[in-house]
Amino acid sequence: MTDTSIDVMNSTRMAELGRRVLRGGDISREEALWLFDLESSADIHDLLAWANRIREHFKGNKIHLCSIVNAKAGACSENCSFCAQSSFYQTGSPKYGFVDPEPVQEAADEARRNGVTAVGLVAAWKGLNEGPMLDEVCARVRELKASGKTRPDVSLGIIKSQRVADRLKEAGVECYGHNLESSRRFFPKTCTTHTYDDRLETIGYLKQAGIKICSGGIIGMGETREDRCDLAFSLKEIGANVVPINILNPIKGTPFEHNPPLPVLEILKTIACFRFILPRQEIMIAGGRTVNLREAQSMIFMAGASALMVGNYLTTLNQPVEKDLHMLKDLGLDPSWDSHGFTDQETGGCGCGDDQVETEAALA
Ligand code: SF4
To answer: How far is the CA of 288 from the centre of ligand 1 (A)?
Structure first.
C-alpha cells in the first residue's frame, strides 16, 4: 500500500469518527487508541481540524477561564512524584499555613477585573477532615461567595466522609478539583502514599453532595499513550465536568526532574483525542502550558480545548493574564462568561493539581 493510500484511509476513518461524535455518538477505546497512535504530522493536523469542529459544535466560541490561589503551601505528607510541595523532596518551594481572608479577596478582585469565572482555593495536604480546619476553609469559601466577584471553587485533597463534602456544599462550593492524574495502571508510579481508589471515593462523596467535579491529569510523566487514553475514559466514567490537562514541567528535586519534554505535536494530539472522547466537557489546559507549548500555545483551542487556567500556578509562573486575553481576542474566542454558573454539562473549576507541575502541585 502506498503512503498516499494510507493517508486517504486514515483521513476517511478520522472523518467517520469525527462525524459520529458531532452527531452525539461515542468512540470506542480501540478507536481512541488508533487516534492516540497517529504519527504523521499530516494526520495529526487532520485530527486537530476535527477536534476544533467538535469544540465549536459543543462549546461555541466561549472559553472558560479559571484561576487558583495556593491556600496552604508546601510540607505535604504525600509523595506525588511531580509535585514541588511534597515534604519528600527538596524543591525550595514556599511553605505556609492556611491562607488569611485578604489574599483570597485580592485574587477575587483580580479575577473580577479579568473576567475569570472561578477562583479555586488549593491546599497542599493529604485531605480534609471535620474539625477547626474545615471550619476555616468553609469561612473562606463563604467570604469569597459573599463577595459576589467570582465563583468559589476548591481543591482540598482526599475526603473520607460524606459530612465533609456536604459541609463544603453548604458553604458554597460548586466545583471541586481532584485529579485522577493518570490511568489506574500508571498511578502507582506517581504516588504511593494514597491510592487511585482514595481519589475515586472522594469524587463519589462530592458527587453525592451535588458538587461539580473538576478532574483531569498530567501528561509527560512517563506514561504511555494507552495510559492517557484510559485516563480520558476514566474521566468520562466518573462524569467529570471540567477536565484539566496539565503538561509536566519537571521540578528540580522531584523524581520526575529529568523527564524529557513531550513534543508539541504529541501534546496537541493528546488534547484532540480527549476532545473526541469527551466532546461536551470543559477541557482546560492548566499547568505546564507556557513552558511546554511556547509559541504554539494558541493551538490548544484548535486542538479542542475550551478552558484555560490563567494567572500564576501554585509554585511556578504563567504568562500574564493580559497576554492570554489578547491571544483569545486574536483568535476570535470569547472569554466572557455570563454568570458564575456552569454550562449545561460542565462547570469550571480549578484544577487542582494542576499545576502540578509547573508547579505544581497539587492538587490533589
Ligand atoms: S500533588 Fe497534592 S497531595 Fe500530592 S504531594 Fe502535591 S500537594 Fe500533596
So the answer is: 16
Residue 166 C-alpha to ligand 1 middle, in angstroms?
23
pLDDT digits (tens, 9 = 90+) for 28-51: 999 999 999 999 999 999 999 999
Tell me the torsion sign for CA atoms 100, 104, 107, 113.
negative
Q: Are residues 171 and 207 in the same domain?
A: yes
Q: Does 65 share its domain with 50? A: no
Question: What's the CATH number where 291 sits?
Answer: 3.20.20.70
What are 329-357's pLDDT values in tens digits? 999 998 876 544 454 444 333 333 434 43
Three-state secondary structure call for residue 263: coil
Question: In this predicted model, what pLDDT tens digit does every residue of 92-124 receive, in sequence order?
Answer: 888 888 888 888 788 888 888 887 888 888 888
In tens, the pLDDT along 242-252 reads 999 999 999 99
pTM, rounded to two decimals: 0.90
pLDDT of amino acid 340? 41
Return the ligand 1 atom nearest residue 356 CA.
Answer: 1
Which pLDDT does position 118 carry in this prediction?
Answer: 84
Give the total number of structural domains in the chain.
2
Here the cell at position 227 is: 495510559
**Are the C-beta atoms of residues 280 and 346 closer than 8 Å to each other?**
yes
User: Residue 329, SS3?
Assistant: helix
Name every protein residue with a CB atom under 6 angstroms from any ligand 1 atom: 76, 78, 80, 83, 85-86, 124, 157, 353, 361-364
Q: How far apart are CA 211 and CA 345, in angstroms?
A: 13
Specify the ligand 1 atom closest to the Cα of 157.
3
Whether residue 151 is contained in a domain is answered as yes
Atom of ligand 1 nearest to the CA of 78: 5
Residue 350 located in a structural domain: no
* Distance from Cα 181 to the centre of ligand 1, integer Å: 11
Residue 314 bridge partners (DSSP): none
**Residue 275 domain boundaries:** 61-330
pLDDT of residue 187: 97
Specify the 3-state DSSP secondary structure of 87: coil
Q: 191 C-alpha vs ligand 1 centroid, how far in Å? A: 9
